[in-house]
Amino acid sequence: MKIHEFNPIIYPYKLWVTFPINPTELNGKFKDNKYDLDFTYLKNYEYEAITQQVIEKQTENIGAIVLFYPKYNHSCKTISHEAFHVAEKIYNMIGADITDEPFAYLIGWVVECLEKVKIEYENSLLIDEKASLIVSIQN
Fold this sequence. Notes:
Layout: E1 2-6, E2 14-19, H1 23-29, E3 30-31, E4 49-56, E5 62-68, H2 76-94, H3 100-138
Parallel strand pairs: 2-5
Antiparallel strand pairs: 1-2, 3-4, 4-5
Helix pairs in contact: 2-3
C-alpha cells in the first residue's frame, strides 16, 4: 500500500490518499485526536471511498486521509464527494466560514490530488496486467 501525502501549503492540514487499503499499516501510522484508530472496520466497508480526519503519529501533523476501495470504478462523483469532505474538514478545523471562491478553489485542489492518485493506481494495474500477459505468452 502506498500512502500519498499532499500539502495545501496555505492551510495547516495534510491530505493523505491511498489505494488499496491496508488496515494494519494505517493503524501504525495514524490516530485520531484522542485515541489510536482501529482501521480493521474497513475490511467490511462497502463504499467506494471514505474520508477520515487523522493525526500522523510520527509528526503529529493533522489532516484527512481518503481511502479508496480498489474494487470500484471511482467516478468524478465519488472524487468530488470526497474532496468536499476534505475541504469541509479543513475549514472546520481553522474555523473559517465556507465561502464561494476560496472553498471552491480548495475543492479543486483536492480533486486534482485525488485524480492524480487514481491515475497512478490505474496505470500500475495496467502495467501488472501487461507483465502477466507477457509471462503467460512466454510460457
